[in-house]
Design a protein that fits this description.
globular; mainly beta; 14-stranded mixed beta sheet; single chain; 248 residues; 46% strand; 8% helix
Length: 248
């Protein structure tokens, strides 16, 4: 549904301001627990799986307040939540998990995504992302597990489950495999993260061909009331259109 435009890492992170980050190269690799050894390209993301759920926000005033002043509201506001496991990466990264919340926005006449929050469970992933403007921080724990066909993503921080995404596939749905060389919409960020004043654009560029296996379904999204974006959801969470994706 939206993963091609929302994937934060199956791509090259190239700034259009002052810096250019190392490119990212996906590949078809089985899950592993160690970084792909050199001489692979550094900072590359070659295998990931995760839940991505998109929903129409209920509070447009809150949506506008979460967007920095530099960014305009889109014609049709859309939010998305994801929990992802990057299981095949190259040095200096090691496999890690991540959650994120993104809002569609407009910047200088172009449509893209603004990242509201992006907890990770790894110090290196945190430092590398913040250097580009991603509002990352290290969470206490991030889980992405499957039980009896139901996938659950959870982010815990300071003794609270700040984010939960529970995915159920459509009855009778079968995973569909596609390939692409297109990176999707750009990501607009502030540097320093969430503060600015500099606006940084991260463009998604796929090196080679990306293989994606997608299972359609729906997801229940829950947020701790203390999260700034929680008010975008109706009381008790929301059942949203979602996909379970494996990308290599």
């Amino acid at each position: 549904l939206l993963v091609a435009g929302l994937s934060m890492t199956a791509c090259s992170d190239k700034e259009t301001t002052e810096d250019v980050a190392p490119s990212v190269e996906p590949s078809q690799t089985v899950p592993s627990t160690t970084s792909t050894p050199v001489p692979e390209r550094q900072w590359a993301f070659r295998g990931q799986r995760g839940i991505t759920a998109a929903f129409v926000p209920t509070d447009l005033a809150l949506y506008r307040s979460l967007l920095p002043a530099a960014f305009d509201m889109p014609e049709a506001p859309l939010a998305a939540v994801a929990v992802v496991y990057y299981y095949d990466v190259t040095l200096p990264l090691t496999p890690y998990r991540e959650g994120y919340v993104v809002l569609q926005c407009r910047y200088q006449g172009r449509t893209g995504w603004y990242v509201v929050t992006m907890p990770v469970d790894d110090d290196m992933a945190n430092a590398g992302g913040r250097a580009l403007g991603f509002p990352k921080y290290v969470a206490d724990q991030i889980d992405l597990n499957e039980s009896d066909g139901v996938w659950s993503g959870r982010v815990a921080y300071q003794g609270r489950d700040i984010m939960r995404v529970t995915f159920t596939s459509q009855p009778g749905a079968k995973p569909a495999e596609t390939t692409t060389t297109e990176g999707g919409l750009p990501i607009f960020l502030l540097v320093p993260p969430a503060e600015g004043p500099r606006v940084n654009e991260v463009d998604i560029q796929i090196s080679g061909e990306q293989r994606k296996v997608t299972t359609p379904g729906s997801a229940t999204i829950e947020a701790d009331p203390g999260e700034a974006w929680a008010g975008l959801l109706p009381a008790g969470g929301v059942a949203a259109s979602a996909t379970l994706d494996e990308m290599t």
